[in-house]
Design brief:
The protein is built from 1 helix and 45 strands.
Length: 637
């Protein structure tokens, strides 16, 4: 129980420390595109003697989205309390709402639109109230009251309002008690009806969910969710109903301080097991799947100090998925070789740089072996460890990125079939793109602005144009940034979508079986997972959706399956068609294009030689004219 309180306190310290780091960070001159221009990202921490019209802070000249830090300590209570629940008060209502110290802002609406106004505070029961601006005459309740909210149980409040151009608002941040402390006020556009993603729908998880992984866990082909809950010591399993809605979570014990989860077949029985990195117990928990989404009791294997990130892949080319673990406390990456039955050999550690926080395994130098990329939080760089081919690695070579490098993802971003890197940098509030020269060396980074304190980055095709876009979970701004790829490894300015309190991790996968990649985002403060459904008719990988195919076009199951090295894919076309067959890995990365061009009507086949690929689950997708179908196959060496 003591440790649980410690984690909660640690989370609060992140919020309190955020303005300090943001204020000290030098402006990044290499940011090439940044739609998220905040009105005041650096803390000004106004400490006001009163909250009345004499000392409001005018935000009207600030571009959207606006992010403003402040402090209610020492302020007085000028607005509220309210005698009863106001008509517009969507959250839980406390009879004492409005009784705390107030800090006030003026904001004039720039255009007719739907806006979200959010408040994150360091004290529970901090409220958000909106009045019509009538200063110098102070607004009164209820005549000038527009709306208010106080989530009570958490430290965040949110209001979504339809507002008109020229409307002037008095925004009241209502603290709790006389020493409420810091807060963050945000104003941004709500996603329009025709935006890429629908508004988030949230599902409860465990306490302090830090990481999410989407994979079929119960054998029905729909993507379920596994969520690592840092406080206290569990992983939540949310079974997909098949349409992107999820059942009540079932929790399984892990070790001490679960921070990262990875789902993959570890015991070669063709179902997805779980590996969980545990920060405080310095180990990895293995939960074997019974095949129906029910998991056996965790077995723990030592890693190194501060195990915060785990990635599973075949590292020694024996057909088994091994583990790589980034260790925050020991500045190392641990390698645990799989015996083939989900038991693991004694750990071998490799030195990286300071604050190893995220690890990703992929072929970086074009030799078909999985190398390692490690994001180092404190040393502002990424370590590259090239695989000798047997699961041992060369000394790390380091490439500079931004401050607080907390997440790394490898994928082909510029269309040259080499895995590039995307790195989320917490304190410059950006993502670094490092393009691969094709040999495991990387060019200098280009940086793109995102939300406030990005914690996680994921690369996948989000807009159905066959290139990898980026989704970034932003911890302090409680949203996810979407950066669409121009097709050459450069990215458009970020669009932001609200998720929940302290967005900590993002995963892209087809969750509703409609053929496009949706998003799952963990929120470490509100203890839930946000599901953002993609509105594009077809993007990325539709791992299991066959509904878009005409009945006259058929894609057969590959044979043999499982297979070693080579497998045959058969398909039938009703007429001459323009056909593309692509191969993808478990994370949605395109491995290769197997066939492309005009094919005649009738029965066809393609042979995939996977001798250069690691064992695991892969997907093959056929696109013929405007139709598509995807199936799963298993490579076992």
């Amino acid at each position: 129980m003591i440790r649980c309180y410690y984690l909660a306190a640690l989370l609060s310290l992140v919020l309190l420390a955020a303005p300090l780091y943001a204020g000290n960070e030098r402006a990044d001159e290499s940011v090439v595109s940044q739609k998220v221009v905040s009105g005041s990202v650096a803390p000004d921490n106004p400490v006001l003697t009163s909250g009345d019209c004499s000392d409001y802070i005018d935000l009207s000249d600030q571009p959207l989205p606006i992010s403003r830090w402040g402090n209610t300590s020492g302020a007085t209570s000028d607005y509220g309390p309210y005698p009863s629940r106001p008509a517009c008060w969507p959250g839980p209502f406390n009879q004492n709402a409005g009784a705390g110290p107030d800090v006030t802002f003026k904001w004039t609406v720039p255009i007719d639109s739907t806006y979200t106004i959010s408040l994150l505070a360091s004290a529970y029961d901090s409220g958000l109230e909106i009045y019509s601006f009538t200063c110098p005459i102070e607004p009164v309740y209820p005549a000038d009251f527009i709306c208010g909210n106080d989530d009570y149980d958490y430290m965040q409040s949110q209001l979504t309002l339809d507002l008109v151009q020229g409307q002037s608002l008095l925004i009241v941040v209502d603290g709790y008690g006389q020493s409420s402390g810091v807060f963050q006020l945000e104003i941004f556009y709500a996603p329009p009806e025709d935006s890429l993603f629908a508004p988030a729908v949230n599902y409860g998880a465990g306490s302090t969910p830090y990481s999410v992984f989407a994979a079929d866990l119960d054998g029905d082909s729909a993507k379920d969710l596994a969520v690592a809950n840092g406080d206290c010591d569990s992983v939540s399993i949310l079974i997909n109903n098949g349409n992107g809605t999820f059942q009540t979570p079932v929790n399984y014990g892990a070790s001490d301080g679960p921070y990262s989860v990875f789902a993959i077949d570890l015991d070669r029985d063709e179902d997805n097991d779980l590996a969980i990195a545990n920060w405080f117990s310095n180990d990895v928990s293995i939960l074997k799947n019974n095949g129906d989404g029910i998991f056996q009791t965790a077995v723990n294997y030592p890693a190194d100090s501060g195990a915060v990130s785990v990635f599973a892949a075949d590292l020694d080319n024996d057909g088994n998925n091994d583990l790589a673990v980034a260790n925050w406390g020991s500045d190392s990456v641990s390698i645990l070789m799989n015996n083939g039955d989900a038991t693991f050999q004694t750990v071998v550690n490799y030195a990286v740089e300071s604050g190893a926080f995220s690890v990703f395994a992929a072929d970086l130098d074009g030799d078909d072996y999985n190398d390692l990329a490690v994001a180092n939080y404190w040393s502002l760089n990424v370590s590259i460890l090239i695989n000798y081919g047997n699961g041992t690695f060369q000394d790390a070579v380091n490439y500079g990125v931004g401050s607080g490098a907390g997440s790394v993802f490898a994928a082909d971003l510029d269309g040259d079939d080499h895995n590039d890197l995307a790195v989320a940098n917490e304190y410059p509030n950006n993502v670094s793109i490092l393009r691969n020269n094709g040999d495991g060396t990387f060019q200098d980074s280009l940086n793109y602005g995102v939300g406030i304190h990005p914690w996680s980055v994921f690369a996948a095709d989000l807009d159905d144009d066959d290139d990898n876009d980026l989704a970034v979970a932003n911890n302090i701004s409680h949203n996810v940034s979407i950066l669409l790829n121009n097709g050459d490894g450069t990215f458009q300015a970020a669009d932001n979508y609200w998720a929940g309190g302290y967005s900590s991790s993002v995963f892209a996968a087809d969750l509703d079986n409609d053929g496009d990649n949706d998003l799952a985002v963990t929120n470490a403060n509100s203890n839930d997972v946000s599901i953002l459904i993609n509105r594009t008719s077809e993007t990325g990988i539709d791992n299991f959706n066959n509904s878009t195919m005409s009945y006259s076009i058929s894609l057969s199951q590959n044979y043999p399956n499982p297979f070693n090295a080579q497998t045959t894919i058969q398909y039938s076309l009703p007429e001459q068609s323009n056909v593309t067959i692509d191969i993808f890995d478990l994370l949605g990365r395109k491995i290769e294009t197997l066939a492309e061009g005009i094919k005649p009507a009738g029965n066809q086949q393609a042979i995939w030689d996977a001798s250069g690929q690691a064992s695991g689950i892969y997907f093959y997708r056929i696109k013929a004219e405007d139709k598509a179908e995807t199936k799963k196959m298993v490579l076992l060496k």
